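Risk register update: the risk that structure generation would not scale has been downgraded. Supporting records follow, first protein first.
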Amino acid sequence: MTSQSEIIEIFWSLLGPWQYLYIVLTFLPNTILRLLKAGNIKSLFSWSLLKHAWFSAFWKVAGPRIRQRNGPRITALLNGRVTNARVVDDQVTPGVGGVVLDIGPGSGSWVDVYAEVRDGGASIQKIYGVEPGFEAHGQLSKSIREAGLEDLYEILPVGVDALEGVKVKGDHYRDQQLRKESVDCIVSFLCLCSIPEPEKNIAELYSYLKKGGRWYVFEHVRIQGNRPMQLYQAFVNIFWPHFVGGCQLCKDTGRYLREAGPWETIDIAQPPEEVWHQTVPHILGTLTK
């Protein structure tokens, strides 16, 4: 029998997404005022532009907080110390290194983690940040400078579908082209929820990994194995993308990753501390090609 305390816990858990959306909503009035003061009438009369400005204002506050809350396990993940979504003391898989594709870095909330693992001994040759959103490049460049990664990190202003053949800076800053099966590692943190055609584009990203290459994942995903919670998540998702920058709650990202191509090992799972009534569950771990 469910105790009163458990009922209260479930209630607040189910209410959580609506509280989150309310917090996002509180950023809208100031966003409108800021656009008015700037004379940006175009954004005020374009719902897509207004939504983007609104979410950007929110994410400047929320992004660093999410980064801080999840920092230790992300550092452990990139150091190869995560298995079955649990942080362990010993390395169980090789850490991030070589040529890295950083998918959807946005304004760079996670960029400093590369400096942290590099300073801890990771042998990173180059990081290519795949970020088609030009409006994020200014803050992303600032984050790269603040992390001291100007020599390693290059922004690629294209989407996944335009990666092949894009010009990049290779060894000794010589121009070269990005090719399939040329990347040692892919990193995606809370970004695959908003990419278009995720099944197709995740398979496309897979093709850039070398054999033995690794994909480090921290993403939120569709609820599995609980039909009532799946329906509730789908209901929340009617509203969620309009508040949270196009983010989709119900993408089956775990399946898309598993089916992207042949993997030598798949070690991704839901963190054990996440409860069955969590509307926004995650997967954490590594896939090795």
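Supporting record for the second protein:
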Amino acid sequence: MGDEIPFFHKVEVPPKQTLFQEFKHNVKEIFFSDNPLSKFKNRSGSRKFVLGLQAIFPIFEWGRGYNLKTFRYDFIAGLTIASLCIPQDIAYARLTNLDPQYGLYTSFVTPLVYAFMGSSRDIAVGPVSVVSLLLGTMLKEEISDFKSHEYLRLAFTATFFAGITQMALGVLRLGFLIDFISHAAIMGFVAGAAISITLQQLKGLLGIKNFTKKADIVSVMRSVWSAMPHGWNWQTIVIGVAFLVFLLITKYIARKNKKLFWVSAVAPMVSVILSTFFVYITRADKKGVSIVRHIEKGVNPSSASEIFFSGKYLGAGIRIGVVAGMVALTEGVAIGRTFAAIKDYSLDGNKEMLAMGTMNIIGSMTSCYIATGSFSRSAVNFMAGCKTAVSNIVMSIVVLLTLILITPLFKYTPNAVLSSIIIVVVLGLVNIDVVLLLWKIDKFDFVACMGAFFGVIFKSFEIGLLVAVVISFAKILLQVTRPKTAVLGKVPGTSVYRNIQQYPEATQIQGMLIIRVDSAIYFSNSNYIKERILRCLADEDVQRIENEFPRIQYLIVEMSPVIDIDTSGIHAFEELYKSLQKREVQLVLSNPGPIVMEKFQASKLTDLIGENKIFPSVADAVATICTKGQEL
């Protein structure tokens, strides 16, 4: 067997870049892939200032074409989501173990900031159930007495550092970091949080006074059963269950008829009004029905001086803020992307991080706790026909009027109804159909989803989040360290070579083994890839000899999916070449990309293998080899 193969077509090597050019290109691809500075080129100083202002405050860009017709849509949407958010805000504040007014404060300030800085037209901002309970649970672990002033200060501190975390990710353009947690793991975490929140609401729904401070399912159910039956209040149960059924019916009506979405949107406010009036005229609070009692009247007081910038709670505030801030950011960006895809416009993830970070920093100084995009409110906002973020401003103004004028009217609102509102909202976060789809599509995603889910309901939010992160990283590591390879065959009637497992009719070429590597080749997988290729070669050789086919003389490695290679990968190819030499098998490469080819040439691997054994395609390689007398 001769060593030389007749030359067919040379694989080109891209022009060599300097170290600075390569570094600049990589930085641009990682941090500035959207090329945000391109619109500033060849502009006057005043125009650059305007463009910079619009980049930070998108409202100055889309606001130029704003008109009365658009405002009419936003006004109706704003009123609709306000009717939903006011009872939700009061209820969610209870999840955080804060007084009800803090939920309303949050829905007054943060939507205003987001309306000026956010890039989504549809997100409705405010407190959300998952983040509220996560924040409340983590705060309670540090300060068990949630009536103490330190507890409130720690909540503001956590909100401040949540905003700092979110803003830092936006400014440094590190938004890609949140993509490291898989969608399946996030779904499991959110579903687990929804179940945990629902179980926590049994305290208010059943009228139980002595209830566990833990969030896991075992502790909660133990508290529920130990209080039965004397610890349950039947008047509370009747009120809670009656309005729970009412809310579920309205939700069912809205789901069946999209035009009646407003029925479900106004149902929480109707429930609050009716239940408050009922308790007031019957004085059910005298019979053990727990009520809201007092909501502070007036505009948000300043809380800038309340934030811990030193002392023993500073570390806890940073830790809680980072965790809760990341969860809030992930949820908010995911919601924004969902509605942006529906309406076919682009959402700038880095702008969203900057907007959410700014609104939480300002919120922490104005008596607010962590806010983000709410799926239930955003869905109602979308269905109500919102056109821009002005709907958030309208909602904010309505909440402000509520704080100034009517908060005393919520005094007799039963907590059981607030629990019912929360239960109906969070149960919508559990999607069994999607979980079943995960099982059908990707078992690893299913495991990630279930791991995060059970971590939350059986242990804690932090453990569930940790499980989600660990499993997500494990999947990435597994895909990087154990990449797929495939044996290719020729599809009959074509010059195309495909995976023989996917295309059983594809035929292998006598005397040749064609293997495709489906990954970049790095230190973490180079040795595995080399050993897998050699093992596949040995197995194929044995099988072909048993079937009385010619032994393998050429190994063609199809490298189209190999987008990069490092020094360990180069070394692995050198070892592969030497191993094949001992077996009297020639190594042939097909379609290495520009980066790979550049590194092959720099390392002299092209000289070792031979430039005449590197081809633009598998078909070229096979055709060239066959000119030496091999049969197709």
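The first helix runs from residue 19 to 31. On this basis the risk owner (M.S.) recommends closing the item.
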